Amino acid sequence: MEAELEETSRKLIIREEELFSQDPPSEEDEDQLQRDLEVLKLHILMVINRTFDSSSSVESNALRSAVAAMQLQEVQDRRWAGRPERRVPMWRPQKCLSAHNALLAKVVESRLAKAAEEESSDVDGLSSPFKRQVCRMGKRVKADLLRVSLVVQDCYGTDVDVVNIYAGLCHGCFSARLAQMTSAGLEANDSAYLLFWANCYYPQEILKHEDLRRSIKSSCLGSLLPKEEVQNLEEQYMKRKEHQMDMWLNNILHREEDNWSKDETPESIDNYYFSPLAIEVIQVIDGSLKECSSLINDGRKYQKITARLESFLGRYKKSMEKLVKRNHGSVSAVVKAHLACEEQLRDYVGRQTGSLSEDHRCRCEDILDELRDGGYSCFTRPIHQQLKVFYKQLWTSSWLDQSLPVIDALLDSLYEHLAHLADMKPSCRQRLLCVLHEDMVIEYVKRMMKSRMKSREQQVGGAQRMSEDAQKMNDFFSAVGCGGSLRLETMLCDLAAILQLHDPGSVRLEMVAFATKFPALSDVPLSSLLTLKSDLSAADVGSIRRSLEELRPCRASTNQSSVFFSKLKVRWVGDRQAHSDQTQSD
Prior knowledge:
Layout: H1 5-19, H2 27-49, H3 57-81, H4 96-117, H5 129-156, H6 162-182, H7 188-206, H8 218-221, H9 227-261, E1 267-269, E2 272-274, H10 277-295, H11 303-326, H12 331-351, H13 358-391, H14 397-400, H15 406-418, H16 426-449, H17 456-479, H18 485-499, H19 504-517, H20 523-532, H21 538-556, H22 571-585
Antiparallel strand pairs: 1-2
Helix pairs in contact: 1-2, 1-3, 2-3, 2-4, 3-5, 4-5, 4-6, 5-6, 5-7, 7-9, 9-10, 9-11, 10-12, 11-13, 12-13, 13-15, 13-16, 16-17, 17-18, 18-19, 19-21, 20-22
């Protein structure tokens, strides 16, 4: 009977047409036809009810026949709809499709209810009854929709969008059961798990499954949970996660501080001091970001996770400052280890282009700058203190006539100090050497600006010594691994070239060329250099300054930055410059 439902439906329609072609139709035949149609409808629904019972070809054929029978009855309903009411059979419309949809709703409800209560080993790893129920129902939804898409849909053909009928029913039922389950409130872990299903697994892994995404109209279904409830769950989750992260990050820092208080020397890896702090911090941030991305779709909210990094870095910097002030035995080794941490954290911050806002990123980098500079100063400050005796000999008559090999002696002394940096991470050591080189050049130029070399012979001789010293410093720092040495050598040589010129026109051209080559440098050293050129008239100095002033907009538009000349604070030069300006104005 069930495999012949389509044929039965067709025959009953023929009987109905023949019966109502009579005038009047036989009441006995009407009663029998109505009973037969009721039996047909019952058999159709019985087959529909067994949709998920088996995947055998026999059941598929029965379902195909039942659907065809139902569709024939739907067509007959529409045919009678246009006829006079007194001539329409009392059983019309049959509404087989409406009964079919109502039955499907009961089937879906029954299957989800059964899934929620049944025990299954595949969810034993979940930590709460709530999680296990949600998982079982979600898996049932997925399995049923896949069966409808891969097997059942073929039995319905194109006239009935059975996939979206089932999708709508499953979605509504799943959503209603979740609302019922959460009405009494949830534990923190259960709330996070619910977010995972609502925001990630259900829309991504079920509705957009490769066998479903082309069929299911996801946009018509909406969210599994009401928007307000999702937002509330997300806010609760983010507050807990931020608190949790602060606790984890503080624990990492406290472990480091405990090691410092015990005066423990950091471990050594590849012959340089190392601390696990940066790796642990990055793991905490990355792990939290990964978890957050699986629960929350709005990437802007991830910034609350990475924003915790800024507050941590602030605490970390203060701890390092306190450590350095204590100046106990292992400070040098600890600072070397944490310069490597700073490098790792800086690289990580630079890579967080999407999850870290630009403001947060800049503030993090500013803190890391202070952390790095403070670490460098632990090593550069004592070195410069030892080298001060050599700095004082620069731009003196002994230096000028080469009776004192100042730079040679300075670099020899520096080389001895560098032996204490061998156990620093190579990349950190290289950057520290570049800082040392720049500091030395700054000190060199300061001494030049304070010099009293007024004669042409002194300026020409000083310029020659300056070029020679620039080459020696460049060779030294290039040999020990500082890659930025050539830029500093070029700058010193260019300054030396200006120093030995006497023709006002040539000085102006070289000054303009220098300002063009180093556009981010301030006007202070350029103006200060003019004060050394005592053979220039006030008119010549004014002309050169006007040329430099005309160049200022071009220099400002380069958007480059340099702290080099900002460190050249030679007070007496500035005072003398002001006096010169006043003389010209008078």
